[in-house]
C-alpha cells in the first residue's frame, strides 16, 4: 500500500503545485507567445497604435555612478531580457551535450544532421531569391531558426499520437539549431568590436570557469558576475545575448554527491532524527533534530547541480515573462497598403519558402542520408511521416527568426532595393531597414502559422503512439528516451 505524505495540502499548495507543473510545459509558453503576438498586431493596427509604439520606444535610463545607459524599452527587452533567454538556452545546451541527448555520437548524429540540413536548405532558398539584393541579404539567417516552444506547443495538441522519442529528437534538433543561431549572431551580426570591453567580459567568464573548476557552487556569485559579463559584452559591440550563453557554459552540471550515497546518507540522518522523537506528541523539532534537518538540506543541495537548479528556477520566468514580452515588443507590425503590396517581394518569399519548404526538406533529406549511411537509426516508434512532421514544425521560426530580424535590419540609412519578377508589386523601391524588418516579421508570422497548421495535420494522421509516460507533464531536463 502506497504511503501518503503526512500533511494536508491547502488549496494554495495544490494550486502552486499545479502551477509548477504548468510552468514546465513549453506548449503553454507557445500559447502565451501566440496571445502576445496577436495583442501586438491588433494594438499596432488599432486606433491606439500610437500608444503601442510610444510604449516600446519609451526611453529607460540606468545610472550607475558615472556610467549611464539610456535605451528604449524594446532594446532593453532585446538586449537584457533576451540575455536571460539565451542563458537558459546555454544551460540546456550544456546539459544536453554533457549528459543528455547530445552526449554521444550515436545519440547526437541524426538530430545534428537534421538541424544542419534544416539550416542549410532555408539559407540556400533565401540566397537564391535575394542574391542580387545586397540589402535583403543581410537577413540571410532569418529562415534558419526554430522556435522550440511553438513546435512543442503543436506537439502537445497532437497528444499521444506523438511518440516521446520524436519530442526528444525535435528538442535535440532545436538545441543544435540554437547553436547555429548563436554562432551566426556572434560572428555575423557584430559590426564593430571594442576589444578592451570584450577582453574584460571574457576575463570575467574565465573567473567563473575557474570558480566552477574549484568546486564553487554559489549560484548568487554566478549571477552577479554574469551581470558584469553582460555589461562588458554589451559595451564591446558583440550582441549582449551572447553573454548569457557564455555564462551558462560555466555553470557546473555535475553533482557533489551521487544518488546512492545520497540515499544512504538520508536514511542515516532520518534514523538520527527518529532517535530523538519523544513519547509525547511533538510539534517542534528538538535542537538535535534541527541539526539533522540542516544536514538534510545540505545533502539535497549536493545531490543537485547548480545548472539544474538554475534551469528549473528560470524556466518559468522565460516562459511566462521574457518570451511573451519579446513577442509583444517586436511582433507589432503596422500593416499598410505599401507593406501588403511588397508581400511577394524576394525578401518575404525567401523567408516564407525557407521556413515552410526549406526546413522540412532539409530535415527530412539530412535524416534520410544519416540513416542510409548507417550513422544512426530512427528513434523508437518514429516513422518517416513523423520526421517530415517534425521538419515542418521546425519551420516555426518565430522567436529566434524575429530576433535575427531585429539584428539584420536594425539601423542604417535607406537601401535601394529592387524587387523583380512577375509577382513583384514594384520595379524599384527605396526601403529603409524598419520597413524591411516589418516585411520580414510579417513573413515570419505567416510562415510560422502555415508550418504549425501543416505540421499538426501531418502528425495528427501519423500512426498512433502510446507513450509510457505523460511527457507533457515533464520538465524539459527530464524528457529522456
Keywords:
481 residues; mainly alpha; Na+/H+ antiporter like fold; 2 domains; 19 helices; 66% helix; globular
Can you walk through the features of this model?
This protein is mostly helical and 481 residues long. The protein folds into two domains: 300 residues, Na+/H+ antiporter like domain (Na+/H+ antiporter like fold, Up-down Bundle); 37 residues, no CATH class. 66% of the residues lie in helices and 4% in strands. It is built from 19 helices and four strands. β1 and β2 form a beta hairpin. α16 packs antiparallel against α17. The two termini are 29 Å apart. The N terminus is likely disordered.
The second-level CATH architecture of the largest domain is Up-down Bundle
* H-E order: HHHEEHHHHHHHHHHHHHHHEEH
Largest sheet: 2 strands, antiparallel
**What's the overall average pLDDT, rounded?**
81
Residue ranges: pLDDT <50 for 5 or more in a row? 1-7, 12-24, 412-430, 466-473
First and last CA, distance: 29 Å
**Name given to the CATH homologous superfamily of the largest domain:** Na+/H+ antiporter like domain
Structural class: mainly alpha
Using only C-alpha atoms, the radius of gyration works out to 25 Å
Level of helix content?
55-70%
Topology:
Elements: H1 11-23, H2 26-44, H3 49-56, E1 59-64, E2 67-72, H4 73-99, H5 105-130, H6 134-137, H7 148-158, H8 164-187, H9 195-213, H10 219-236, H11 241-248, H12 259-275, H13 287-303, H14 306-330, H15 337-341, H16 346-372, H17 384-394, H18 398-408, E3 415-417, E4 429-431, H19 433-460
Antiparallel strand pairs: 1-2, 3-4
Helix pairs in contact: 2-7, 2-14, 4-8, 4-11, 4-14, 5-8, 5-16, 7-8, 7-19, 9-10, 10-11, 12-13, 14-18, 16-17, 16-19, 17-19, 18-19
Amino acid at each position: 500500500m502506497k504511503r501518503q505524505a503526512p500533511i494536508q495540502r491547502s488549496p494554495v499548495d495544490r494550486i502552486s503545485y499545479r502551477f509548477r507543473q504548468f510552468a514546465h510545459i513549453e506548449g503553454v509558453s507557445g500559447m502565451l507567445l501566440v496571445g502576445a503576438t496577436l495583442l501586438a498586431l491588433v494594438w499596432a493596427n488599432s486606433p491606439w497604435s500610437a500608444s503601442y509604439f510610444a510604449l516600446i520606444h519609451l526611453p529607460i535610463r540606468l545610472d550607475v555612478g558615472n556610467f549611464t545607459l539610456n535605451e528604449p524599452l524594446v532594446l532593453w527587452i532585446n538586449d537584457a531580457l533576451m540575455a536571460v533567454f539565451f542563458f537558459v538556452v546555454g544551460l540546456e545546451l550544456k546539459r544536453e551535450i554533457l549528459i543528455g541527448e547530445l552526449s554521444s555520437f550515436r545519440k547526437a548524429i541524426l538530430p545534428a544532421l537534421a538541424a544542419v540540413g534544416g539550416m542549410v536548405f532555408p539559407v540556400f532558398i533565401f540566397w537564391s531569391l535575394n542574391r542580387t539584393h545586397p540589402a535583403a541579404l543581410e537577413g540571410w539567417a532569418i529562415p534558419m531558426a526554430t522556435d522550440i516552444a511553438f513546435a512543442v506547443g503543436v506537439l502537445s495538441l497532437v497528444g499521444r499520437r506523438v511518440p516521446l522519442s520524436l519530442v526528444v529528437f525535435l528538442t535535440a534538433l532545436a538545441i543544435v539549431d540554437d547553436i547555429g543561431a548563436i554562432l551566426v549572431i556572434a560572428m555575423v551580426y557584430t559590426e564593430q568590436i571594442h576589444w578592451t570591453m570584450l577582453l574584460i567580459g571574457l576575463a570575467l567568464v574565465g573567473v567563473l570557469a575557474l570558480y566552477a573548476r574549484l568546486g564553487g557552487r554559489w549560484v548568487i556569485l554566478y549571477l552577479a558576475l554574469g551581470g558584469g559579463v553582460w555589461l562588458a559584452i554589451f559595451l564591446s559591440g558583440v550582441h549582449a545575448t551572447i553573454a548569457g550563453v557564455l555564462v551558462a557554459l560555466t555553470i557546473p552540471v555535475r553533482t557533489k554527491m551521487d544518488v546512492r550515497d545520497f540515499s544512504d546518507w538520508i536514511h542515516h540522518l532520518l534514523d538520527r532524527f527518529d532517535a530523538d522523537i519523544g513519547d509525547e506528541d511533538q510539534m517542534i523539532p528538538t535542537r538535535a533534530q534541527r541539526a539533522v534537518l540542516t544536514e538534510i538540506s545540505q545533502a539535497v543541495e549536493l545531490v543537485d547541480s547548480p545548472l539544474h537548479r538554475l534551469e528549473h528556477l528560470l524556466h518559468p520566468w522565460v516562459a511566462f515573462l521574457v518570451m511573451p514580452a519579446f513577442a509583444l515588443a517586436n511582433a507589432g507590425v503596422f500593416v499598410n497598403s505599401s507593406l501588403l503590396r511588397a508581400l511577394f517581394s524576394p525578401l518575404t518569399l525567401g523567408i516564407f519558402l525557407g521556413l515552410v519548404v526549406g526546413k522540412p526538406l532539409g530535415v527530412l533529406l539530412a535524416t534520410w542520408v544519416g540513416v542510409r549511411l548507417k550513422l544512426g537509426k530512427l528513434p523508437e516508434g518514429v516513422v518517416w511521416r513523423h520526421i517530415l512532421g517534425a521538419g515542418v514544425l521546425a519551420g516555426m521560426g518565430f522567436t529566434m527568426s524575429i530576433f535575427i530580424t531585429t539584428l539584420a535590419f536594425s539601423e542604417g540609412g535607406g537601401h535601394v532595393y529592387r524587387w523583380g519578377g512577375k509577382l513583384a508589386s514594384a520595379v524599384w523601391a527605396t526601403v529603409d531597414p524598419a520597413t524591411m524588418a516589418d516585411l520580414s516579421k510579417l513573413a515570419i508570422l505567416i510562415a510560422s502559422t502555415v508550418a504549425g497548421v501543416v505540421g499538426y495535420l501531418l502528425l495528427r494522421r501519423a500512426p498512433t503512439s502510446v507513450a509510457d509516460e505523460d511527457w507533457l507533464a515533464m520538465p524539459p531536463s527530464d524528457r529522456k528516451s
